[in-house]
Amino acid sequence: MRTVGVEEELLLVDPASGEPRAVSEAVLAQARDEDGLEKELQSEQLETATSPRERMADLALEIRRRRAVASEQARAVGAEVAALATSPLPADPSLSPGRRYHRLAAAYGLTAQEQLTCGCHVHVQVDSDEEGVAVLDRVRPWLAPLLALSANSPFWQGEDTGYSSYRSRVWGRWPSAGPVEAFGSAERYHEQVKAMVATGALLDEGMVYFDARLSHTFPTVEVRVADVCLDADDTVLVAALVRGLVETSARAWRAGEPPAPVPVAVLRLAAWRAGRSGPAGPLVRPLTWAPASAETVAWALLEHVAAALSDAGDLEMAEELLNRLLSRGGGAAVQRAILDRSGDLRTVVREAVARTTG
Q1: % helix / strand / coil in the chain, to the nearest 5?
Q2: Nearest Cα to 75, choosing from 38, 21, 140, 124?
Q3: DSSP sequence for 223-235
Q4: How many CA atoms are closer than 13 Å to the CA of 207, on its beta-carbon side?
Q5: Residue 36 to residue 28: CA distance in whole angstroms
Q6: Residue ranges of region Disordered (predicted)?
Q7: Of 86, 43, 80, 47, residue with least CA distance to 66
Q8: To which H or E segment does residue 100 belong?
Q9: Among 64, 69, 84, CA closest to 350
Q10: What is the dihedral of CA 168, 59, 42, 330, to 10 degrees?
């Protein structure tokens, strides 16, 4: 069984106004090492990280526990945490202290200054870089549907953007972000990363912001395409699907099946559509690359990884969680429904705080 771990970036907000609060340093100063909390680019963010887990039930418990710990530590300094991929209310982000963050600000200007976005990164264990790159080459068609399912950022600077994941549009400003071509081998992957860093356009290897990459810290494939999910159940679903994709792709590689020959330009269009529509659809269906409903694409993804999910004991759980998500809508739909009911973005934030640990 491949282990899987999840990193979630959470927004720190004022409990009364709902506005982002730059208190991550205060939170981290009092946090314990075992809390699994880290700082991010902006002081209005906090990152949680689970341990690697084999059983999805154990991962689900830890995701909720990490959120609860983050909430407890934030409240101790007069703030709350919200699993929102962008702030619904206007924000003027504050860069976290640290030499690397200041280098980012100097090198990338407004892109770094405005980058108050919260993602969800899923790490799945692989046996080698060669297997990892084989997986990266084969998961490419299925990353846009993951973005659609996780979409949780309809608002930006107090306005409805018309997108379900506006985070994905803001994140795409980084020079290395987005889908990439198939590499063919670990050697070619590392050659390309080295060549990218050598251009001077990136500070270091940590800035290789592909939608999915080899982790430069752990022996894992790291899928970085998703918004942080409002509901922890959706995070669990994304993690299960990512592990299913990794295992399905590794099996295809061992069987000698080549990756689908889809151009990066088409992947970019599918990602744009996923960010625009979310799980309400329409989306671009992988492999046929024709328009299709979100339900059709979501169930095609689950069918693609069904054997791997079944072998891991995750199939029934994934089917149930996917049915729930499609029935209620994703995070963006929930946020918009709260706004329609209340007419107040502060209420959106307050209810997001409650849902984050509820």
Answers
A1: 50, 15, 35
A2: 21
A3: EEEEEPPSSHHHH
A4: 23
A5: 10
A6: 33-52
A7: 47
A8: helix 99-108
A9: 84
A10: 40
| Displacement of CA 324 from its chain's centroid (Å) | 19
Beta bridge partners, 210, equal: 178
- Residues forming a β-bridge with 292: 283
pLDDT one digit per residue (tens) for the chain, 358 residues: 999 999 999 999 999 999 999 999 999 999 988 889 999 999 999 999 999 999 999 999 999 999 999 999 999 999 999 999 999 999 999 999 999 999 999 999 999 999 999 999 999 999 999 999 999 999 999 999 999 999 999 999 999 999 999 999 999 999 999 999 999 999 999 999 999 999 999 999 999 999 999 998 999 999 999 999 999 999 999 999 999 999 999 999 999 999 999 999 999 999 999 999 999 989 999 999 999 999 999 999 999 999 999 999 999 999 999 999 999 999 999 999 999 999 999 999 999 999 999 8
The residue assigned the tokens 């991962």 is 59
Dihedrals φ, ψ of 316, to 5°? -65, -40
- The amino acid present at 265, given as its one-letter code, is A
d(CA 79, CA 93): 16
43 to each of 87, 179, 294, how far by Cα in Å?
A: 13, 28, 35
CATH T-level assignment (fold) for domain 95-342 = Creatine Kinase; Chain A, domain 2 (3.30.590)
Rounded distance between C-alpha atoms, residue 114 and residue 317, angstroms = 37
Q: Which residues contact 264 (CB under 8 A, 6 or more apart)?
A: 179, 180, 181
**Hey, how many other C-beta atoms are within 10 angstroms of the C-beta on 195?**
9
CA distance 16 to 349: 10
Q: Find all residues with CB under 8 Å of 28, minimum gap 6, and list them.
A: 37, 38, 39, 46
The domains of the chain are located at 95-342
